[in-house]
Amino acid sequence: AQRVTQPEKLLSVFKGAPVELKCNYSYSGSPELFWYVQYSRQRLQLLLRHISRESIKGFTADLNKGETSFHLKKPFAQEEDSAMYYCALQGSGGSNYKLTFGKGTLLTVNP
Amino acid sequence: EAGVVQSPRYKIIEKKQPVAFWCNPISGHNTLYWYRQNLGQGPELLIRYENEEAVDDSQLPKDRFSAERLKGVDSTLKIQPAELGDSAVYLCASSQFSKTQYFGPGTRLLVL
Fold it and tell me: Nearest C-alpha of chain B: how many angstroms from A97?
């Protein structure tokens, strides 16, 4: 079974501070990991995926297979980063279409 | 590009009434997904279509939920009869095969 855990329901930081949103997963094979973001009154949208190894809006995430983690990081948070963030896992093989989401972390960046 | 379109955006019904949600995927996307998102949870997959075929409906409560994707484009998800526990946001997503999934705005259902 595949499972995604986001231990923090709420995370509050000040503008300019570093931010890290935690994500741990459980999966027996080689998963693909994603971060989705939902800004207020907007649809769920892809922020980044681990295979891309790119930085989007200053955010990065590294897949740590040893610790089964995929934490999302940004060195200097901005107010516009305030949103709901979901970590998601896509399995390989027969279930390679299925996205399993964590419960999400609500990030608030205070001025 | 318009993105995934869903309607209605909001729906309030009384329990035991029927309700239907409609989704139009991104043009050219052969795979369509319906998810349900309960309050405080992440989305959970209900059903997946490849073209017009439902290839995974294992999570769909078949006693009251049904779905169809005529001609492999638009899709409709129906609940009959609705129960209080069906109150949730119903999300539609589409992708090209198993690639990145793009989500619609969702339909927020409240069952009274």
Answer: 5
Alpha-helix runs per DSSP H in A4-78: none
Secondary structure element (H or E) that encloses residue B22, with its range: strand B19-24
Q: Interior CA angle at A72 toward B31 and A80, to 5°?
A: 90
Nearest to B98 by CA among B6, B10, B29: B29
pLDDT tens for each residue of B79-98: 999 999 999 999 999 999 77
Closest chain B C-alpha to A23 CA, distance in angstroms: 13
Q: How far apart are CA B57 and CA B53, in angstroms?
A: 10
Whole-number Å distance between alpha carbons of A106 and B40: 10
Give the Å distances, CA to CA, from A42 to A37, A38, B18, B104. Answer: 9, 6, 27, 9
Cα distance between residue A24 and residue B68, in whole Å: 35
Encode burial over B73-103: b for 16+ CB neighbours within 10 A, e otherwise: bebebebeebeeebbbbbbbbbbeeeeebbb
Over chain A (111 residues), the average pLDDT of each successive run of 10 is: 93 97 92 93 91 85 92 96 96 72 97 94
Residues of A with CB under 8 A from a CB of B: 4, 9, 36, 42-46, 49, 86, 88, 90, 96-99, 101-104
Pairing verdict, β B102-103 and B5-7: unpaired
